[in-house]
Write a sequence for this structure.
């Protein structure tokens, strides 16, 4: 299963790397690809991870989530 997270507030590659590391630290997340240009992350899940957990991790990294959609 994959989910796309729309993220506001990232302004550099360091921001994208920070979000990637935070998301990949969650249990159940196998990988995260973060695009600064698209202001989004595509997260591949091994198990179901609630949207709230994904959102909280992005907030903890210092950014805002505008949407999470299953793909």
């Amino acid at each position: 299963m994959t989910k796309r997270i729309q993220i506001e507030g990232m302004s550099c590659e360091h921001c994208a790397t920070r979000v990637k590391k935070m998301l990949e630290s969650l249990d159940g997340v196998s990988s995260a690809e973060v695009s600064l240009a698209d202001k989004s992350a595509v997260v591949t899940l091994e198990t179901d991870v609630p949207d709230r957990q994904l959102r909280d991790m992005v907030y903890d990294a210092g950014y805002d989530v505008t949407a999470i959609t299953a793909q």
Summary: The CA atoms of residues 18 and 61 lie 7 Å apart.
